Every structure is written in structure tokens, then in C-alpha cells.
Amino acid sequence: MNRSQLRYLLEHYRTVFEEEQQFVAEFLDLVEDPLAFHRERTAGHFTASSWIVNKTRTHTLLTLHKKLNKWLQLGGHADGNDNLLEVCLNEAREESGLTSLRLVDRTIFDIDRHLIPSKGEVEEHYHYDVRFLIEAEMDESLTMSDESTELAWISFDMVEAVVNGNVSILRMLEKTSRSEIFS
Fold first, then answer.
1. Is the Cβ–Cβ distance between 60 and 154 less than 8 Å?
2. Domains of the chain by range and CATH?
3. What's the rounded Cα separation, in Å, for the pair 5 and 63?
4. Nearest residue to 127 via CA among 39, 66, 65, 53
5. What is the mean pLDDT of residues 139-151?
């Protein structure tokens, strides 16, 4: 995937969720920015993440993010790489140690624009997060990165309590439960 393929996927991205529909135009505008995939774009930049689920769709892998102190999906900065699918898979491997990761679909699973608070010398900015659906084996051992305080498979029925109402995670959970995604 490159910048033009990302543009194509965004142009054809369809969602029933109103908040995502509002993001699409902003994401398409950002694709045109030469610094879109770089942290140096201080107003905001692309990130990529994985909604990792087990094969039977009963659990998701979440990390307690050290800097944000929130349970989140695994992911991170593009750091100049315009192949967000590659970024997503690399971040998932680095943050979990999993080798059984399998892309369910090459299309975008979810998009979200969220504000990252200032910390140290890094100013408040937006992450334009492009998310892909990934499957992994739950019996494989996990290796936590230094970006996490905890890393755990969370059962779907516990996700809402763990993420404290994080709308974007609850949206991905709802998408996972829709049968059309897997048909």
C-alpha cells in the first residue's frame, strides 16, 4: 500500500457510523500533505493500528498504553512510511511479540481522529488513525513492549468496562460483532 492506494481506500471507505463519515474528508485532505506520515507535522499526522481479535471473535488484544494510561488497540506512528498496512503489522508485532498475526482484509476496518495531549516537548496534536482487522492465536505467548504497562486478551463482554467508554474502541467492537464483516 502506498499513498495513492490509501487515497483510493479512503475514497471508497463506507461506514454506518456518523463520526467516521465526518473524518473521511479530513483524512483525504491529509493524504495530500507531504508531511502527512511524519511526526514533524505538528498539527496532526497519520498513525496505523490493529484491531486484533482471536479466530472465534470472543477476545481482542489491548494494551494499557504507558503514556496515555488508557487501554487501547496496538498501533503507532508511521514515521515517514506511507504504507499504513505495513506500519500496522510492524507495530502489532513490536508491541505484542505475536508471530501469528494474519490480516483479515486489505481494506480499512476503521478510522479515527483523536487528540493527543501535550507531554514534555511534544505539543498537543491529532492522530489520524487508520485501522486494520487482524487475527491472531490467543495461545501464543505475549511479549510486552516498553510502551505498555499491561498487555492482555480482553473478552468482548469486558471491553466496555476496561476502555471506560472509549467510543472508537466500542465502535470497533460493534463492527466485529456484525456478521457481514466476516461473510
1. yes
2. 3-182 (3.90.79.10)
3. 29
4. 39
5. 92
Cell numbers 480499512 correspond to 108
Predicted pLDDT of residue 180: 43
C-alpha cell at 29: 485532505
Q: What is the DSSP string of 118-147?
A: PBTTBPPEEEEEEEEEEE--TTSPP---TT
Place of cell 497519520: 46
Q: Model pTM?
A: 0.93
Give the three cell numbers for residue 124: 498537543
Contact 95, 84 (CB under 8 A): no
Task: Encode pLDDT of 146-165 as tens digits.
Answer: 888 999 999 999 999 999 99
Alpha helical stretches, state H, the chain? 3-11, 18-31, 84-96, 156-162, 167-177
What is the rounded radius of gyration, in angstroms, for the C-alpha atoms of the chain?
15
